[in-house]
Input
Amino acid sequence: MNLVRFIAKKIYEHIVTTVRHHPVTFLPTIFIFLILAAMPIGVVGMLNQLYPTLLINDLAYPLGVLFFSAYYLSICLFFYSYFVTFYLDMWIVTNDRLIDVYQKNLFSRTISELDLYQIQDVTSDVHGLFPSIFNYGNVTIQTAGPVPKFIIHNAHRPHKLRQLVLDLAAEDKRHHNK
Amino acid sequence: MVTIPLYYILFAYFAFLLIFVIFILVNLAHLFHTGALTFISFAVTALLVILTVFVLFATYTLLADTYWQMPITIWDPSWIGGSSLMPI
Output
């Protein structure tokens, strides 16, 4: 399935852009998983020091290998699941609406959307050292619709995105006023 | 005394592998369903496959010479009472 079918695109509609979290915001997760991956090395080294015969024991050795194998596969699985959750948490901007796909975890997803002509105000903000260096931040959209506020978190080039949303909203308002 | 052969532990490991595969398939289904089949998602999936194959291959290599029929004692009354109630 592609994105067009996923959002049930209307005939006159086209996808302008897809916004995801900035890749830099995924780096802390990579760092945590690297630490988790390095931990068994320390544990094995410590066990070697404390119990030198343990790891050559006929029973402990295969059990240990299976345990660490399962541990590393679990890390891979959690990393991949976290990436998928991170990657699928996105915003789709079309020339008619803004669709927020909120992927909370692997089995929890909320999709909400607002018509662009309902947009009243758009704010973009970049706070902090890393957001300033890598140019990412939040874009807050105030609406007159049932969902009063949309926040696009950690978007790349938030000021440019704000301008894009404002332009599209103005164009959609003109279309609706005809 | 209750003993089981060492290969019983492998069944638990295979059960874990089954759960692992199911979760990976759920993740892939999410990527496919949401139309997120991009280069980045492909690259991370490829990395996952490479790491998984590496871990499984390393596990297989490290356990190649293991004697799987070796009995493991999972229950011995002497662990509680101090002496075995049932003679071997």
Summary: The mean pLDDT of chain A is 89. The helical segments of chain A are 3-6, 27-50, 60-88, 129-134, 158-177. The interface with chain B takes residues 1-6, 58-59, 61-63, 65-66, 69-70, 72-74, 76-77, 79-81, 83-84, 87-88, 90, 101, 103, 106 of chain A (CB under 8 Å).
